[in-house]
Structure to design on (184 residues):
C-alpha cells in the first residue's frame, strides 16, 4: 500500500504503517552518518545537549555529493544503516521516531523501534541522483567540520521510502525472505 506522510512523523501515523508499505515523505528530515552519530554520542556522554532537537525526527543515513549548479544537493543515496546500529537505540529512546537507510538492522535496533513505537524505512540504494530531485533544500545545522558527514536539515517532497521494520517489529527483510523460500 502507498501512503503519503507529512512530517513531523506522528506516533498515530507510525502505528498504522506496516512492513512493506510504500511511503512518500514530505517535510523536514535530518541527515547523519557515522562521524555525526559518534559525535552525538560523545555529546550525550558529557551530559550536553544535542545540536538538534531529536524529538520526533527522522534521520536519513546519507552523505551527499556536491550540489550541481541550481540544485540544493548532489546525489543523495542511502548508506548502510548497520553502521549506526550502536547509536540508534539511544537516539530512539531520546525521541527519534524514524530512520532511513539501507540494509539490515540488529535485534537491539528492532527492539528499540518496538519499544519506542518507531519505524525504519529503506530508500533505494543506487538511486541517489533520482532521490536528490525530491530534496527541496539542504542546510548544514551541525558539525560543519565533518564535511559530507555534517548534520543537514533537508526539506523533502514526496521522498520515496519503504517501511522495513514497523512499530510492531515486523521486518520486511525477514518476511520477504520467507515468502521467497516458499516459492516453488
Amino acid at each position: 500500500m502507498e501512503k503519503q506522510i507529512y512530517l513531523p512523523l506522528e506516533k498515530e501515523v507510525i502505528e498504522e504503517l506496516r512492513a512493506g508499505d510504500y511511503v512518500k515523505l514530505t517535510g523536514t528530515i535530518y541527515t547523519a552518518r557515522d562521524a555525526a552519530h559518534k559525535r552525538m554520542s560523545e555529546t550525550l556522554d558529557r551530559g550536553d545537549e544535542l545540536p538538534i532537537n531529536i524529538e520526533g525526527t527522522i534521520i536519513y543515513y546519507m552523505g551527499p555529493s556536491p550540489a550541481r549548479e541550481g540544485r540544493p544537493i548532489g546525489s543523495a543515496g542511502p548508506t548502510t544503516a548497520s553502521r549506526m546500529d550502536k547509536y540508534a537505540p539511544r537516539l530512539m529512546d531520546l525521541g527519534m521516531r524514524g530512520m532511513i537507510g539501507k540494509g539490515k538492522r540488529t535485534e537491539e535496533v528492532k527492539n528499540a523501534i518496538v519499544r519506542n513505537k518507531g519505524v525504519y524505512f529503506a530508500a533505494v540504494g543506487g538511486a541517489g541522483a533520482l532521490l536528490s530531485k525530491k530534496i527541496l533544500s539542504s542546510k548544514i545545522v551541525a558539525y560543519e567540520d565533518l564535511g559530507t558527514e555534517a548534520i543537514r536539515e533537508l526539506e523533502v517532497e514526496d521522498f520515496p521510502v519503504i517501511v522495513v521494520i514497523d512499530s510492531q517489529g515486523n521486518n520486511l527483510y525477514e518476511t520477504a525472505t520467507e515468502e521467497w523460500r516458499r516459492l516453488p
Summary: Strands lie at 2-6, 22-31, 58-60, 98-101, 119-122, 135-142, 151-165.
